[in-house]
Amino acid sequence: MSRGSRTLTVLYAAVALWLSFCTVRTWGTVPVWSSLAMVVAALAPVVGVVRETVIADERRAVAVLREREGRRAAWRDAAAAALAQAEVEAACCERWWTSCATEHDAGCAHRRSWGSSTA
User: Fold this and answer.
1) What pLDDT, in 10s, does the model give residues 87-117?
2) What is the residue-wise DSSP string for 86-117?
3) What's the whole-model pTM score?
4) Torsion of CA 48, 53, 55, 60, to 10 degrees
5) Domain boundaries, the chain
6) Which of 10, 53, 68, 104 is deepest in the core (most CB within 10 A)?
7) Distance between CA atoms of 90 and 108, rounded to whole angstroms?
8) b/e map of 88-117 (b: 16 or more CB within 10 Å)?
């Protein structure tokens, strides 16, 4: 829950308590409709507290989803880098085949030394 949400929750609770206190203190000395209106008004801030907690839960859920998506993106980036590396290594051998075995990268894992053979 953010600092603003906590502040609003505290204010909502304070207003609800104050309205409840006023309702209890004035019960029987004012008309019944007025006391009932105060009871309803005291319950209204509870809706605000519930709203703030729901918003905080949604923010946490979004943060978790963003973190998961970030991990998935990192995994996809690593997989794409491995695929690109494999394609680069394959391109070395393609150059070797297309150049009639005259060009081959020295660091290629597929490089074979074709020494001169005497028959």
Assistant:
1) 776 666 666 566 666 665 666 655 555 544 4
2) HHHHHHHHHHHHHTTTS---TT-TT-------
3) 0.48
4) 170
5) 3-98
6) 104
7) 9
8) eeeebeeebeeeeeeebeeeeeeeeeeeee
